Amino acid sequence: MSGVTARAVLLALLLLVAVSVASFYVQIAWGRVQYFADGIPAAAPVTLLFVMTGLMGLPLFRRVGLTRRELLVVYSILLVSGPVLSTGVLFWMLPHAVAYCYFAQNNPQWATTFLPLAPSWFSTTEPGPIRDLFEGAAAVPWSAWWLPLAAWLSFMASVLLATFCILALVRRQWITNERLTFP
Q1: For the CA atoms of 137, 139, 143, 147, what is the dihedral angle to 10 degrees?
Q2: Same structural domain for residues 33 and 14?
Q3: How far is CA 85 from CA 81, 97, 152, in A?
Q4: Which residue has the higher pLDDT, 91 or 113?
Q5: Contacts of 106 (CB under 8 A, 6+ apart)
Q6: Do 36 and 100 have their domain in common?
Q7: Measured between alpha carbons, how far is 161 from 169 in angstroms, rounded to an integer?
Q8: Domain ranges, residue 7
Q9: How many Cβ atoms from other residues are within 10 Å of residue 83's Cβ?
Q10: 92 and 33: one domain?
C-alpha cells in the first residue's frame, strides 16, 4: 500500500503504547472513562488525529511533517489496535475466562456441568492462581498463566490480522470507486 512508511507505523505503535498506558491510568484513577471502547470513532484516535493534523500545520513540524496518507495510517492503526489493548477487552477477557473455575469451588454442580466442556488451554484450572486472581494477591504465579495467556493473545492477534485483511480487501472499493473521504 502506498503511503505506508516505516515512520508512520513506528509513530502509530509509539502512540498506541502511550495512549494505552494513559487510558489505563485514567480509567483506574478517575473511574470508568472509556477512551477506546464503546465508541465509533473512539475519542483517543480522533483526538490524536486532530492534534497531529494541527501540529503538521505549524512551521516547526511542517518540514518533517506527516503526509495525509501517513496520518491516515497512524489513525487506522490506533483505531483498530486501541480497543484490543483497552480495559474493555483486557479487564473482561481474563476474569470471564476463569470465572467458571472460581465459581465451581462454591457450586459443585458447575464442576460437573461446565468444567468438562472447557478445553485445557482456555484457562488455568489450578485453584490457587484462580483464587488469587479473584481475591487479590501480591505475586502472580506466571507459570500457571502462560498457556492461557498465549492462547488468548494468539486469538486477539488473529482477530486483529483478520480486521486488517478485511480492510485491505475493501480499501480499493472504498477509496477508488466510492471515493470516501478521510480526515
Answers
A1: 50
A2: yes
A3: 7, 17, 13
A4: 113
A5: none
A6: no
A7: 12
A8: 1-80
A9: 20
A10: no
Are both 73 and 116 inside the same structural domain? no
Measured distance CA(176)–CA(183) in Å, rounded:
16
| Domain count along the chain | 2
**CA nearest to 51, candidates 17, 43, 81:** 43
Cα–Cα distance list, 130 to 84, 114, 140, 171 (Å):
23, 16, 10, 44
Q: Using CA atoms, how far apart are residues 104 and 98, in angstroms rounded to an integer?
A: 10
If asked whether residues 55 and 94 sit together in one domain, one would say no
72/127 same-domain check: no
Tell me the residue length of the chain. 183
Residue 16: phi, psi to the nearest 5?
Answer: -65, -45
Q: Do residues 124 and 98 lie in contact, with contact meaning Cβ atoms separated by under 8 Å?
A: yes
Per-residue pLDDT of 12-58, as tens digits, reads: 889 888 887 777 777 677 765 555 554 445 677 777 777 887 887 78
Nearby residues of 136 by Cβ (< 8 Å), 6 or more positions away:
none
